Amino acid sequence: MVLFNKSTPLFHICHSISTRNDPHVYGMHAHDRMELYMLIQGDVCFGIEGSEQPLQPYDIVITREAETHKLTVDPNVPYERIWIQFKKELIEKVDPQLILLSPFYNRPLGTNNLFRTYKKSESFCYDCLKKMMVESNDLPYETQFLSCFLPILCELNLTMQDHPPIDSKEPADLTTKLIAHINDHLFEPLTLEKISKEFYLSKSQLNRIFQRATGSTIAHYISIKRLLSAQAKIKDGIPIHQAAQQCGYNDYSTFFRAYKSQFGVSPNDDKCTP
Predict the structure, then answer these.
(1) SS3 at position 110
(2) Is the dihedral of CA 163, 107, 90, 98 positive or negative?
(3) Interval 251-256 mean pLDDT
């Protein structure tokens, strides 16, 4: 059940609660925006780029663009959460150097994503989120949203300086190396056969290890990462064929089909127009 939902071109905030959950709904995915997620109640394990961490109520998890993540949710426990997805352009209006987004960007991929608040009474961020979800007649909603969201970003920055975020559980060393290798060579000719030779494992073994850690096959992971990167380039005005090639697609028809399947629109629909 959706308790609050508001969307603008620069951000989307949603507060929802579920009493029956299908774990498959929360499989591995990534966004073309940054995300701030708070668990209110539920039995949830949050996985990011192969690392996993059980969550406690009022924990905050942050992810940047194209940072893959998944959730494992106990379907027998009520699941309540608040999430905000936003474009960095929203923050550039007041913080051109994006200092407030340091917790999102100034860290290695898949690490230091979790900020912990141990009880509701101590959660400054939760209080700010609640204020976002009471619309005022006196202010445009974007102004109201920013007046509550910017203090949250300041709080995360201060927390990061005084008490570093909680690192996710260390995944198996092989998984860490595998994910790092894929991201280091993401836009090169990258096949399961090449990766299996690099790690001296069979293709089925590699996929089994990777899927256990991320909830995704290696091919699907590579596809999502490449397509999100291509989409960002196209929206920035890079010609479509050039963006496809820069992101590892040498065959345009393959790229076109994958793009439309992933985003529901063609690359032309996302093309930057003057």
Answers:
(1) coil
(2) positive
(3) 92
Positive or negative torsion for Cα 114, 118, 120, 122: negative
Q: 102-111, 155-164, 180-189 — which is least confidently predicted? A: 155-164
Examine the pLDDT at 11 and tell me if it is beyond 90: yes
Contacts for 10 with CB less than 8 Å, ≥ 6 apart:
86, 87, 89, 90, 142
- Please tell me what DSSP assigns to residue 171: P
Q: How confident is the model at residue 110 (pLDDT cuts 50, 70, 90)?
A: confident
- Give the whole-angstrom CA distance, residue 102 versus residue 69: 19
What does DSSP say about strands 69-73 and 79-86: parallel, antiparallel, or unpaired? unpaired
With tokens 């209006």, the residue in question is: 93
Domains of the chain (ranges; CATH) run: 2-162 (2.60.120.280), 173-270 (1.10.10.60)
The closest alpha carbon to 199, from 172, 221, 181, 219, belongs to 181
Strand partners, 37: 61, 83
- How far, in Å, CA of 94 to CA of 59, rounded? 26
Section 193-214 average pLDDT: 87
Q: What is the DSSP string of 211-266?
A: HHHHSS-HHHHHHHHHHHHHHHHHHTT--HHHHHHHTT---HHHHHHHHHHHHSS-
% residues pLDDT > 90 (the chain): 55
